Amino acid sequence: MPRPRILKVGVLNIKTQPHSAQKYIDLLKKTFRMNSPGKIRGSDWGMIGTLRESNDSVDKKYKVIFGTIYRFLNIDPRGDWLDLKRRKPINADEDDSVPPVPDNLKPNLKQIFYMFYPEYHRLFFEYKFITPKGLRDLLSSLFAEEKIFSEFGKVDIEIESTKEAIKRILKIPRITKLSIDFSFPNPDDLSDSDEKVLKRFQKQNIRKYNQVSTTTHEDGIKPDEETQALMNIARSNGKVTAVGYDSGERIVRSTIDHPLTEQIEYNPEHEMLHDAMLIASTRMLKRIG
Predict the structure, then answer these.
(1) pTM listed for this prediction
(2) Are 168 and 231 in contact, with CB atoms under 8 Å apart?
(3) Which of 20, 126, 143, 259 is 20 to 30 A from 223 via CA?
(4) Taking Cα atoms as reference points, which of 102, 128, 120 lies closest to residue 64?
(5) At what angle do helices 132-143 and 21-34 cross, to 10 degrees?
(6) CA 260, CA 206: separation in Å to the nearest integer?
(7) What is the mean pLDDT of the chain?
(8) Between the CA atoms of 88, 92, 95 and 100, what dihedral angle is there, to the nearest 10 degrees?
(9) Cβ contacts of residue 119 below 8 Å, gap of 6+?
């Protein structure tokens, strides 16, 4: 009997402006059809490997896109190799002992299940073989391709952080530096209070916001209601970083160190990975709201 498995899920906030559910569907489909890889870091690359569409979403009303992201090593087969037995470098162009590797074959494949909700523009993914930052870097690389950029413009991709991350920052006894950095949320994502705070930025057509506050005051920075509202907006749309002190000890806390995750147990004998992801993503959407 198969043992229960643990599914750990992360989430990214993907934004285009202006936006619609159909536009997000078109974005992912066109990126998938492009069939080209993007860089994660170093020799680690990836691509959208499979893509399917269904109506089996959280509330059964909206479409959901799901599939597999492929992660692999993108090596240069014509680069130098190493013979471990002889401890000798080998030049692939000069030594025929190195077998030819076709450009279309990539080693060390990892498969990452994902689920995307166009109405909420949130992409949930299996945390097993990639981090939120790694997936953000991959998608940023793919969406920067000319074929995508020319149709959809700049696509903002943000790591969703926990509400607890903001609470931990506010608990620093003496904050000496506070950085709030975010890309502008889509209008229909804003609560009435958030919209009120951002109204003056909307009038100025501001797309990205960065505020850095510092102090030498013995009591440190005391974020007021408006500053805390901006911090909360950055939780889903950017990051908040604080530097401060507790009993003379220097502390650095950032929302990026606390990405929103969900972990559930499922039995593959009775439950599909797709269904487990639906459960996890439903819980996470409630935590985001």
Answers:
(1) 0.90
(2) no
(3) 259
(4) 120
(5) 80
(6) 26
(7) 90
(8) 120
(9) 21, 57, 62, 63
**CA 112, CA 68: separation in Å to the nearest integer?**
5
pLDDT of residue 187: 67
Longest dimension (CA), the chain: 70
Kindly report, residue by residue over 249-268, the tens digit of the pLDDT.
999 999 999 999 999 999 98
pLDDT at 154: 93
Q: Residues 112, 129: contact at Cβ < 8 Å?
A: yes
Q: Which two tokens stand for residue 200?
A: 């003056």
CA separation for the pair 277, 56 (Å, rounded):
12
Number of other CB atoms surrounding residue 116 within 10 Å: 24
Q: Identity (one letter) of the amino acid at 276?
A: A
What pLDDT sits at residue 25?
95
Please give the Cα distance from 115 to 97 (Å, whole number): 44
d(CA 250, CA 106): 45
